[in-house]
Amino acid sequence: MTRSTRTQRGAMPLPSPWLILVFLLLQGNPVDVAKLPGDLNEEDELGNNFNKGSNNQDGDPEGALSSNEEAQGLSNYTAYEEWMDDYPTCNGMRQSPVDVENEKVETKILDVHGLRGSGYKVQPISMTITNNGHSVMLSGKWPKNKTPTIWGGPLPGVYMFTQMHFHWGADDSYGSEHTFDQESFPLEVHVVHFKTAYGNMSNALEYDDGVLVIATLLAIGEHQNVALDKIQANFQDILTPGQSKTLEPFALKYFIGGIFNGSYVSYLGSLTTPPCSEAVIWFLSLRIRSVSTEQMEAFRQIKLNNDFKYNNRNTQPLNGRQIMHYHYTSE
């Protein structure tokens, strides 16, 4: 069965600015994957501290069922019709992921402050990595009022981190869920947040603005990704679904590149796994990061449910949705 109609790396190149800048990345330089205006400093500016919210978190991966037994049927990436039979929302009008066409991205000026956040530079008290059968998931516990939190800009409230996970392919030619001008990348990281007004992830999935996912795509480069090394050092202990391992804690700032400097596009979508809840605000970082071939091979050693070698959903129709890039008039 054909995996996807998306362009794979190594196929005929598209006449796109995405590809030109990715070429620069492959020479070992971190780049921004769009010639969009804005202050793109190397370090993200996180703004003022924010102490609202609690450390109550719901760590289900993108809201999908977390037990290994229940998740078996949710990991069949060759039979999407089975998803739709059990979860009709998976055939909805606001599904994710999507392809980002550079020429169709719309710029909008907001008379508000840009994004603000706190906790992304704070090292958690503890951190756990889990093979839940359909991804590698990372969760943590932070000091009181220090759990990573984001607000401002186009967000309709305050959002708190709950977990992070990864999507990859069976080889380096694909793996990301989102694409840029139909160009796929080998790895995509999802940093998942829920709206604090709703209390936890499970409740947040009942609202169309309940979840925020910050997604970063990674391309094959010359160097190891140091942040990923911290996680992959524990992979030998989570090769089988259901296994977990406590790891040395680290701050999440390495996985939200460019978001607080405006280097992202946004659209309204869904979870990319059942129940496919249409509850997600997506921020797609325009800073494509580097990952080595050796690091990608380490992901493919992780055993998933149904012995799948990949865990990325195909892109879905936009159905008239806008993909936005924001500018802010207030500092």
Automatic annotation (TrEMBL):
It comes from the Eukaryota. It holds the Pfam family Carb_anhydrase. CDD domains: alpha_CA. Residues 70-327 form the Alpha-carbonic anhydrase domain. Keywords: Signal. InterPro entries: CA_dom, CA_dom_sf, Carbonic_anhydrase_a-class. SMART domains: Carb_anhydrase. Residues 36-68 are annotated as: Disordered. Residues 1-33 form the signal peptide. PROSITE patterns: ALPHA_CA_2. One of its GO terms (cellular component) is cytoplasm. Residues 48-58 have a biased composition (Polar residues). One of its GO terms (molecular function) is zinc ion binding. Belongs to the alpha-carbonic anhydrase family. This is Carbonic anhydrase 2-like. The lineage of its organism: Eukaryota, Metazoa, Ecdysozoa, Arthropoda, Hexapoda. The gene is LOC105366314.
